[in-house]
Automatic annotation (TrEMBL):
Pathway: Cofactor biosynthesis; NAD(+) biosynthesis; nicotinate D-ribonucleotide from quinolinate: step 1/1. Involved in the catabolism of quinolinic acid (QA). The keyword Cell membrane does not apply. Residues 125-294 form the Quinolinate phosphoribosyl transferase C-terminal domain. Keywords: Glycosyltransferase, Pyridine nucleotide biosynthesis, Transferase. Coiled coil: none annotated. It comes from Arthrobacter sunyaminii. InterPro entries: Aldolase_TIM, NadC, NadC/ModD, Nicotinate_pribotase-like_C, Quinolinate_PRibosylTase_N_sf, Quinolinate_PRibosylTrfase_C, Quinolinate_PRibosylTrfase_N. The keyword Glycosyltransferase applies. Hexamer formed by 3 homodimers. Its EC number is 2.4.2.19. This is Nicotinate-nucleotide pyrophosphorylase [carboxylating]. GO terms for biological process: NAD+ biosynthetic process; quinolinate catabolic process. It comes from the Bacteria.
């Protein structure tokens, strides 16, 4: 994770996640955490007791989580109220109050952990994404996520990437064609000409479907282009080979770099002239940001 000096001062507010999707995810999390109720709160806290709490940042970052926090407390009790001094996509310093919650004490205590778990993870993704974007500043490269997301949380984690100033890759296997190394290996095993096989596949697609082909060697690029690739993914290429690949493609398709993309390497990759840099690290191994929720 990066320090505060590496974070851009940003206030980008992406479009919200559809509320029904948020409620479905949060309801499942609450059901997992309290399948038969919160027996500790029900035992110790009077039903008429009310409480207020604040969500406070313990380290700097980029905020993401307003919808999941609101849903966690609303679904715990419709009588809760949540206010947000900071919006999704805004940067903050340690000590910043991110949310203010009030309502039935039992509901505040029941919703606390689900709200925190999700907000910490999403803010961690947004913060790391912002650091990647900052490293690529001054180049034409877009930072994008991958499908290496937590099962069931993809729509939220993709939103967090956007909160950090990044972009989204295809959302699912149904969105676009992406011929990866294993697909190409199967074609080669059948002694099929790569360019012809790709061209035949693309001919059967609607014109609205994007067609991407992954290559792991420079000598595969021409076949990918001849097969009609809209984007050529240069997988695990060295910076020198990325430069050569961009030169060979020469604007005939979008160029994407992937593989071994880390915060320490992304600036050098961006400088090669690629259009896109996809990084699974944004979502598959990010550290949750340190946020705390305390009753007043």
């Amino acid at each position: 994770m990066t320090t505060s000096t590496a974070l851009p001062r940003q206030s980008y507010v992406p479009a919200p996640v559809p509320q029904d999707a948020v409620d479905r995810i949060v309801a499942a999390a609450l059901a997992e955490d309290a399948p038969w109720g919160d027996i500790t709160s029900e035992l110790l806290v009077p039903v008429e007791a009310r409480a207020s709490a604040v969500l406070t940042a313990r380290e700097p970052g980029i905020f993401c989580g307003t919808q999941v926090i609101e849903a966690a407390f609303r679904l715990a009790s419709a009588q809760t109220s949540v206010q947000f001094p900071v919006r999704d996509g805004e940067s903050f310093e340690a000590g910043t109050v991110l949310a203010e919650i009030s309502g039935p004490a039992r509901a505040v205590l029941t919703g606390e952990r689900v709200a925190l778990n999700l907000a910490q993870r999403l803010s961690g993704i947004a913060t790391l994404t912002a650091a990647f974007v900052a490293q690529a500043a001054g180049t034409s490269a877009r930072i994008t996520d991958t499908r290496k997301t937590t099962p069931g949380l993809r729509i939220l984690e993709r939103h967090a990437v956007r909160c950090g100033g990044g972009h989204n890759h295809r959302f699912s296997l149904s969105d676009a064609v992406m011929a990866k190394d294993n697909h190409l290996a199967l074609l080669a095993a059948g002694n099929m000409d790569l360019a012809q096989a790709l061209a035949a596949a693309k001919a059967g697609l609607p014109h609205t479907v994007h067609f991407e082909v992954e290559v792991d060697r420079l000598d595969q690029i021409e076949a990918a282009l001849a097969g009609g690739a809209d984007t050529v993914l240069l997988d695990n290429f060295s910076p020198a080979d990325l430069c050569r690949g961009v030169e060979l493609i020469g604007g005939r398709a979008l160029t994407e770099a992937s593989g071994n993309v880390r915060l320490e390497t992304v600036a050098e990759i961006a400088a090669t002239g690629v259009d896109l840099i996809s990084a699974g690290a944004l979502t598959h191994s990010v550290r949750a940001l340190d946020l705390g929720l305390d009753l007043r």
